[in-house]
Amino acid sequence: xxxxxxxxxxxxxxxxxxxxxxxxxxxLDRAARRISEKHNIPGFRKGKAPRFIIENxxxxxxxxxxxxxxxxxxxxxxxxxxxxxxxxxxxxIEAIDVNEGFRFRITVPVYPTFTLPDYRTIRIPxxxxxxxxxxxxxxxNSVRDRHVVLRELEEPRPAQQGDQLxxxxxxxxxxxxxxxxxxxxxxxxxxxxxxxxxxxEPLYQGLLSAQLEETREIPAHIPADHEDERVRDKDVVFKxxxxxMQERLLPEWDEVPTLEEFEGTLEEFRDHTRTDLExxxxxxxxxxxLNRFIxxxxxxxxxxxxxxxxxxxxxDLLNEQGAQFARYGISLDQMLQFRNQTRExxxxxxxxxxxxxxxxxxxxxxxxxxxxxxxxxxxxxxxxQAMLASYAxxxxxxxxxxLSNPQTQExxxxxxxxxVLDTKLRARLLAIAVGEAPEPGSDHDHAAHRxxxxxxxxxxxRPRPSA
Length: 467
Known about the structure:
five-stranded mixed sheet
């Protein structure tokens, strides 16, 4: 068997394969036996007609057609072994020539080539937002508000600070309404807490002393940094009609720790809240550094990606979306039918995101290799036990029943191992970004390993005959 290879863009390798005459003859013999077993040949029992009879009866073209898949399949596998090629998806038959001998050309997607930048020189400053007394106070107010009780007014009265108002609100710019309420017959109701911590100052001042069923027009200037660009740095008029008014009864401050099931004093609860806010601020800052660092690594990496790998990730994204809809009792097929889409159409919408995800995955996988990050079996066992301990008692029997299946257990431990490795990777990337990383391979022992990727089947796809 003669094989020549050609490297193509998008991490494809073209194999031009020419079979030896003896290989072709053996393939034709096998094809003749299969045809003989499927058809009644006059004068012969099924499977007993010799090849020359089959060839005369059905024609050589039918014999070659029957032999083609078998010949290509065996030759393709042998070619992959001989050339030491590990495909990442199905091979695609590009051409078959049976006029003189037996030749075919097949393109094989392989693991992509890519070149990482000198990522250890990338620096991202870590800026942790300071947790001020004001921020702690706002957080405590928010906690207290979770336990508010609304009480209807016994007698009508003007609106006071702290009241909750139900209103129909329009925002006017140059006399034109900004909001689009669609085909609604009337402006939908919304609720406002009459407090300067909840609404802008002009709206707060303008609604103080408002009466039930009263309509007020309140002028205001919207700051230039407002999130809604339609009103940013503009003079507006809020047209507000009050439809309901309730008194908000907040618990006493000393009651808040108990309501939050916290064992301690109000001052201790304040300290606990500050610590929690500081931890969250640290996590946000670290995540920002990680996001920016990874974005730079991916942007500076040169890729040559096979389409099949991008399509596989797009499939994953589509299935993830389907799983989200499944929580509401809607299957992926129902979702596609509602959108009047085929699966291919829906998958195509994810190709851009899939390419970015694949680039990130490949780059970070290479970083793991270069940094020689490893996981210890004891770490994986501890992480698995911690994950199981996080389940509620009523959920645990079903989880353990599922894990009694060897395949499910293997997948579970594989996922846990990857989670442990991901935690180590995040810590290493953060250390590199801020200039505090140890040397690669300086923190693992002889028992450590990496999760092994799942093997892929070596298959090919024949082109469909044209109509």
